[in-house]
Every structure is written in C-alpha cells, then in structure tokens.
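Exercise 7. Given the encoded structure of a 606-residue chain, write a plausible sequence.
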C-alpha cells in the first residue's frame, strides 16, 4: 500500500521528472492522491493533489519545482480521506521538513496530542503528519537533522517506511520497519523506493533494506545504519528484471500485457527445475530436504490464497496432509504446529503484512518456514528459513495474473519434491504431470491465440451475477476467476465448489445469472450433473474444457476450449480463459482495469 520514491542526484541535475516517472511506475500501490517535495537550494517546494498522478502532473506544469534532491508519494488511503490536505508529502510547521510514509503509525494519536500541547499545528487527518513535527521538535532542541530523524523514528509504533528531505541538507533520510523500502544505486545518483520498478529504467543495482535500517543517501554515497547509528551491511545486487518489464509495451492495459506474458513467465518458473530424466530439481532443495515433514500448512492472502488451495489439492493427491489458512485469520487464530510442520508462505511481493505476521507466529511456535515469492530480498524471503522464487518478473496490474500461474507451477514442483521425500517413492502420475508442466508455456500461448473470450464478453455485461464452479483444482480456479471478475468489473461474482451448489448457492441461480464451469478432465461427469442443475433453473452455462470434451461442449450454452493436458495443468489453462473473460467484460464496461477502485497491489498494512 502506498508508494514511496526518492532521488538524490548531482547538484546540476533536476530530479522532478525522475520522481514523477517513479510514481507512475508505483501507481499500482495506490492512486488516491500523490505529491512530491523537491529541495532547490533555497527551501523545499511541495506540490500534491487528490486523484491519480495525472492531476499532480497538471499541477506541476504550473509550478515546476526544480532541484537535485526530492521525495515523492502515491497514496492508498488509510488515515483520512483522499484529499489535497491528506496527500503526501507532509511538512512541519515551518515547511522546512517534508516526509512521505507508507504504513501505519499506531501511536499517532498520543504523539499528535503531545505535539499539539507543544504548540504544533496540524493541517491533515493523517497519522503521517506526526513525523515531520517530531523531527522539527528535535531539531529545535539542537539535534542534527540525522539525529532528529533517528529520534523521531524511534518514537513510532507500527509498520512503516519513511523518507524525508529538509531545506538545509542535500541528502534524503529514510527508515523502514515492517514496510518495504529498497535502495537503488545508479552511476551518479541514488534512489529509494517501495519497489524496484520505480527506478528500474535508471539502474538494476539494488540493496533491500531490512527492518530497523536507517539510510542516508546523496548522489554518490549511501550509508545504512541501525537506529542507534551502528553501520549495517546490505549487499548491493543486480535484479534480473528489464526496464520494459515495467512498461505497457503497446498493450492497452498492464493486465492484458501480463496475461500475455504468462508463457514467458511460466517458462522462467519451470526452467532448469525439471531434469531430462523426469526428476524435480529445485536448486536449494535436493532430494531428502523434506523427509522429516509430517504436515504442511500453507499461508496466503487473495490470489496467493487460491494458489495455495491449488497446492493443497496436489499435495492431497500425493497423500500429504496439508491445510490452507488465510494469513489474516492465522494472525489471530494460529493453527497448532509440531516439530514436523512445514509452513509455506505464498506471497507474490514477499511484503504482505498479514502473511509476514503469520510467518513469525509459526516460527515462534517451532515450525519450519518456507517462502514462495516473486521478490528476491523481500522480507518473507529473509524471514523464512528457506525461499523458493517464482521468477514471474514485475507485475504492475493490481489484479494478479501471471504471478498466479507461476505460483501454481512452482508449488506443483515443490509438492512433488515434498511427496517424494516424505513417502520415499515417486508417484506413478509424476511423469505425466511434469510433462504437462513443461508444455504449459506452449499450451498457454495456444490458449491466448485461439480464445473466443472477446467475442463472448458482450453477453456477460449487465447480468445480475456471475458464478464460477469447479472440482479438485478447478475449485481454486473458480475462486480466482470470481475474484478477478469482481476486482476489475465491479460486478457481483462468486466462486463455489461444484458439489456445494445444491447445498445453498443454487438458490441464487436464475435466468439472469451466468455460470462458468471449469472442467479439468477429472470428475467431469460429476461437474456435468451440476451444469444440468443450473441449466434447469434457466441459467446459461459457459464451459471451459479440453477441445475433445464434446459431451461438455454439447451440455453448455457456450464453450471455451483449452488444449489437451494433465488435469493439474488444465486448471491453469482454464484460468487463462477466465482472465480474458474478466478483462474483456471490464473493458466493455469502461472500468479502470489496472487500478481498480479501493484496491492496491501490495497489502503492507494489517
């Protein structure tokens, strides 16, 4: 939630365009309001506006602050409505200190009261505004800017990342505790941001900051310390992402681009992880790694939760006890763990607040932890005992697409490794499954090339509701498809286990409903009976199944075909068709597809 960007450049440079471009690259993290603060040698100029970044750009056209040091922010509202006053950056009484912030200051009410008693005046409803006033207070007491910043940060409770510029320093000061912050090292300048895409066009050399880090950057130098001022070493590494990965590349929306990137993302996810002789090769998890595992817990939120459900089904098929938990619920009602419990945290960003809290709870209770994530250097990757990366590349659209496919593919491989280690044998189905996973990139491309979703989409506009049903791995696909539909169309959609229809949801089905049925090639005859149940209530049915499933095609009103494959892979191919359905309907409705209302990409607050 919220996106921070900052840049310190040589004195003769102007960072304004860099800041605005960085904010556009981070807009998936929030788009309720945005703003910048630029130090120009004579003070700090702050410009901020309610609305998307275009509104800020228009305002900057009239003011055009210039300078070599600055910070920027794009907001997802937590404290206070999305207004000009509540937009970041926030300043102190004098206007000399400007701060941007991602997270929540839990003790802001007490701090605000203390500062008001000392004569400080507040102009917003945000929790963030206490930070510049704290810095102001400590500077007035004679502390240096850096010491005042450390003192202020030490007073904060909660999860946060903060960046600050002041009128009399050529540096940017920043700190993190619970919210992401990454340092970018360019040839002649330094960057700070909530996520790498902010500055990827300038440098791919990064250092991921950790909780408790305080950093000071200038154009040619950075210094990372702990809160007490002790030096901290954070390795500068090269990320395997290209600048074009964070650009639309000619597509109308990032979401459509990322749907079409799935073949390449899946190829990266699988590459080198299936051997020529049909074995699973996970680089950091050789055979025997999981032989002492008795039960698997999977923790996740949102789309990642659906990927975890997919993995649970695969593990169950292999005879491995596995449970999936919503990370948000696990934080308050954690499940019992034993010495043989493996807790797998599934998180695209590696920064999801509820998932991170759940990981720490599980670890404290003695569980072994493993992160399945997209971001090397993320908090989840560092906090867990081990990490397995999905290699999907940057995903900008708020509605996850390619990361879901990559998560499932990698989790399927992980499930095979766990099953072999625990049982001491190779399942007879493994060869067919691994072959299907290797064919996934080609099969997804074929699905994209031949899909008729665009032609069908008009008939799904204006319906009362859309229902999605499936069995086995088709069930998490139904849930994920319903989530995508509601996220970007703003229309009512629900996903159900096909067998549950007659236990309640069938009461909702009318002739004004559309039912999408996922067929994976396993238990299709049972799902066909559910199709008959809804059609007898007058609801049209759209079936997603293999090209050869003639009986399914005949039973449905509309048919979306996928290539012949293993049932586990069939679910992912069906999901691609349903991603396209949601995208096309949302486009017809004129929705803000990449930036759906009220949502942001990375949920870094609980």
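Solution.
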């Amino acid at each position: 939630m919220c996106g921070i960007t900052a840049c310190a450049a040589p004195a003769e440079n102007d960072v304004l365009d860099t800041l605005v471009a960085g904010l556009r690259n981070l807009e998936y993290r929030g788009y309720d309001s945005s703003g910048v603060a630029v130090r120009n040698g004579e003070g700090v100029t702050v410009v901020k506006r309610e609305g998307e970044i275009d509104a800020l750009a228009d305002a900057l056209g009239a003011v055009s602050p210039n300078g070599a040091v600055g910070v920027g922010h794009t907001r997802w509202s937590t404290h206070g409505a999305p207004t000009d006053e509540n937009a970041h950056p926030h300043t102190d009484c004098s206007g000399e200190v400007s701060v941007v912030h991602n997270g929540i200051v839990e003790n802001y009410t007490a701090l605000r009261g203390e500062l008001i008693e000392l004569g400080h005046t507040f102009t917003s409803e945000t929790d963030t505004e206490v930070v510049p006033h704290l810095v102001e207070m400590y500077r007035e007491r004679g502390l240096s800017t850096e010491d005042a910043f450390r003192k202020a940060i030490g007073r904060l409770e909660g999860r946060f990342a903060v960046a600050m510029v002041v009128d009399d320093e050529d540096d940017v000061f920043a700190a993190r505790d619970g919210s992401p912050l990454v340092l970018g090292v360019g040839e002649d300048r330094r960057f700070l941001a909530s996520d790498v895409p902010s500055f990827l066009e300038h440098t791919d050399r990064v250092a991921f900051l950790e909780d408790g880090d305080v950093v000071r950057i200038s154009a040619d130098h950075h210094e990372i310390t702990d809160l007490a001022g002790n030096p901290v070493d954070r390795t500068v590494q090269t990320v395997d992402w290209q600048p074009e990965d964070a650009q639309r590349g000619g597509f109308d929306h990032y979401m459509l681009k990322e749907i079409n990137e799935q073949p390449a993302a899946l190829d990266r996810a699988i590459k080198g992880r299936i051997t020529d002789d049909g074995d699973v090769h996970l680089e950091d998890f050789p055979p025997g790694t999981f032989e002492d595992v008795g039960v698997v817990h999977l923790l996740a939120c949102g789309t990642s939760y659906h990927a975890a459900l997919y993995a649970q089904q695969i593990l169950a098929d292999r005879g491995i006890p596995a449970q999936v938990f919503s990370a948000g619920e696990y934080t308050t009602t954690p499940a019992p763990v034993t010495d043989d419990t493996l807790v797998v945290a599934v998180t695209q960003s590696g920064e999801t607040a509820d998932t991170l809290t759940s990981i720490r709870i599980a670890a404290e209770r003695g569980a072994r932890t493993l992160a399945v994530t997209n971001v090397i250097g993320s908090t989840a990757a560092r906090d867990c005992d081990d990490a397995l990366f999905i290699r999907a590349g940057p995903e900008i659209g708020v509605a996850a697409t390619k990361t879901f496919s990559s998560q499932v593919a990698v989790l399927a491989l992980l499930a095979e490794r766990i099953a072999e280690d625990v049982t001491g044998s190779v399942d007879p189905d493994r060869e067919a499954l691994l072959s299907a996973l290797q064919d996934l990139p080609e099969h997804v491309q074929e699905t994209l090339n031949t899909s008729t979703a665009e032609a069908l989409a008009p008939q799904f506009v204006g319906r009362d509701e859309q229902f999605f049903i499936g069995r086995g791995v088709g069930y998490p696909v139904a849930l994920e498809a319903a989530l995508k539909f509601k996220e970007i169309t703003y229309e009512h959609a629900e996903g159900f286990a096909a067998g549950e229809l007659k236990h309640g949801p069938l009461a909702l089905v009318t002739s004004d409903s559309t039912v999408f049925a996922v067929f994976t090639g396993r238990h299709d005859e049972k799902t066909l009976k559910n199709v008959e149940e809804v059609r007898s209530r007058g609801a049209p049915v759209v079936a997603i199944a293999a090209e050869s499933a003639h009986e399914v095609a005949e039973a449905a009103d509309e048919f979306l075909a996928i290539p012949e494959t293993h049932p586990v892979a069939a679910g992912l191919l069906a999901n691609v068709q349903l991603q396209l359905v949601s995208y096309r309907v949302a486009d017809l409705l004129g929705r803000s597809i990449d930036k759906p209302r009220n949502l942001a990409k990375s949920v870094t607050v609980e």
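Remark. Residues 435 and 587 are 35 Å apart (CA to CA). Students should compare their own answers with the one above.
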